[in-house]
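Weekly structure sync, notes
Attendees: PL (lead), two postdocs, one rotation student
Agenda item 3: pending single-chain targets
PL asked that the sequence for the first pending target be pasted directly into the notes so everyone works from the same version. It is reproduced below exactly as submitted, 259 residues in total.
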Amino acid sequence: METAVFDRSLIVSIRFVPYAGCQTWRFSRGDRQWRHTYVHRHKPTRMNVTDVTDLYQEFGDERLPPGQRETSEFPVLSKSATPEWDPETWEFTVTGAVDEELTFSWDEFRSLPSVTLCQDFHCVTGWSKFDCEFTGVPFLTLAERAGVIDDVDERRSSGNRTESGQAVHVLFSALDDYTTDLPLEDCLREEVLFAWAFDGESLPSDHGGPLRVVTPHKYAYKGAKWVDGIEFLTEPERGYWERRGYSRTADPWQEERYS
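Predicted structure, written out during the meeting:
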């Protein structure tokens, strides 16, 4: 194996980005300048796990959003008590501006194609947990099966035209009567999952088990715990916290916590 050798006098600066896990080295010789970025993985991902922790580059310069602190813990925050559920009677529904309304039992939902993603989790109260491995069904899969989109690779702001209208927004509902909303285009991302496992184990009930939404590009209140349905809307509708003054856009890198 060859070892890179260079003249250290050419180094202009070295910038270490701790939360992104990389260093950027800038070099200069005469009128020519160049740079190299060295990436260090803090946590190797397992086989069949897709790492999407670099999505922050689409929204900001640092992996840790402004006003957040990193924690190794996974605090529990909910609007109310953990609801009970019965796998024999549990149902998940897909309704609204769709070609075909869908209903799944727990066994049927678990039989849908699933993926495992390594992603970050940002709470609006000011903490972030890095490198969370969530396993579940991509939002894109349900949108395609309901006829809202034609292909899971589509990135668009509105759905297909249906007899019920053209979807532009999504309302998530949950067993505890919680709701939250997002524009359709914010949902049509590979990172948005209906997660039933966390770090290789069934999702704990206090963290939203049996099923929760994860939205690593938004504050976590946009990811409904105990989710049991989605409605594709032809116009925006506010969810539980959004009606109480929380931001509708919830971009952590813009610190969009409140309206």
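Discussion points:
- The chain has a mean pLDDT of 87.
- The chain is about 5% helix and 35% strand.
Action: rotation student to compare against the earlier draft before next sync.
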